[in-house]
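Intended use. Records like the one below are meant for learning the mapping from a protein sequence to its folded structure. Do not use them to infer anything beyond what is encoded.
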Amino acid sequence: MKVIIFFNKISPLLDVSSTDNKQCVFSATVIPSDFIGKPREKSETKYHRITVSITWHLIINWHLKSEVDILKVLYERGKEYFIKNLKNYSLQENEEFVLSTSSEEDDCPFNLDCIDDPNLETQFEVDIYHSNLTQNDNVKNETIKVFISYAKEDEKYALKLYNELQSSNISPWIDKHDIFVGEKWKNAIRKAIKESDYFITLLSSNSVNKKGFVNNEIRMALDLYDEFPEDNIFILPLRLDNCKIPFEKLRQLHVIDIYTNWNNGLERIQECLLNHHNQKKLLLKNDKFITSGINISYASAKKSQDIHIYNLKVLFTNNTGIFHSNFRFEFLFPKIVPINALLDIYEIQEVIEDNMLYNMVSANYNTSIFPDQKIDLTEEKIQYEMNDNIFTQDNIHSLRFLWRLYLTNSPKLSGGIPWADMHNF
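Structure written out for the chain above:
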């Protein structure tokens, strides 16, 4: 298989350690040639970070007289190392190695005049002999959890799907087999939906025309789906007959009419589950809400007897695996919540989301952020106030605070935080 590699420098040349070794960080983006310009290009693209260091003794031995010469050597060795490990199936997302006199010959092996400019992105094509671009056993062996929602009248189809989805990587969940004796079935279903990677709902005239827990399951799944970035896949609707699709949000999703050709529909489901799940996850789940390296914390104090003032702190950890040079952060407060933000970098404007009015606090950042680096998005203080009248309103538990993060080279990250998760009642 041929792959296209985009290799470029993402940090300046740095002095590291007391011996003044030189170090530089490079990024490598790998795209299979067959997928360039096709819908699956993004999902098949892999991102890597390569840190290359060179000892001072080697700089002297190789007569590297300028920073440009040092950069060219680090750049060329970084590319060689990357290609070698890519072909050997031993490449991780973050690699680090040091060039030293113990492992290198006395003379510089490179003609520095023939090396590309390290400050410019280089593109080249390489032949590799396996389809997986990185070795990541955690992803490779990870079980894909799939919840199957159905009406009791459609149980035979649900069990058929359950049995046919069973594989070494797909683990379907169905109430008929996966609720233990004596377990509270409603709690078990809620827990299974929350822990699932995908939610399959079997739609038929039996399920859409009756009230019951099936519709509650779909509502729970739609609430979870709201926390994902827009281009993520979570809910897979399958029609068992020519029924109407319930819920407006469900009608916006592509539906498989599995009743027209069961085998073809099954293949499409399996392809979606296996291929989509192998994309690098931007989201991590915790017990309260879904986050993408976003950690939101609050410090509260009473301003007076009936007014509460909250300080907002938002930390972002770059879990995307690639370097970003700038980004934009937006935090949306329900309109009924007064905001007091220092506006050196923030802007406030009214926006409407899902028919609700919000005050959006937003800021653009021109700060570079490397993989695994953590930064504070609220160095400028954001405060919001609530009086006791807000706490006692009937719709208090339906309120949500929304956030969105726009990064270079990545899809938008977004999420919502239920009011009850932010404040103790």
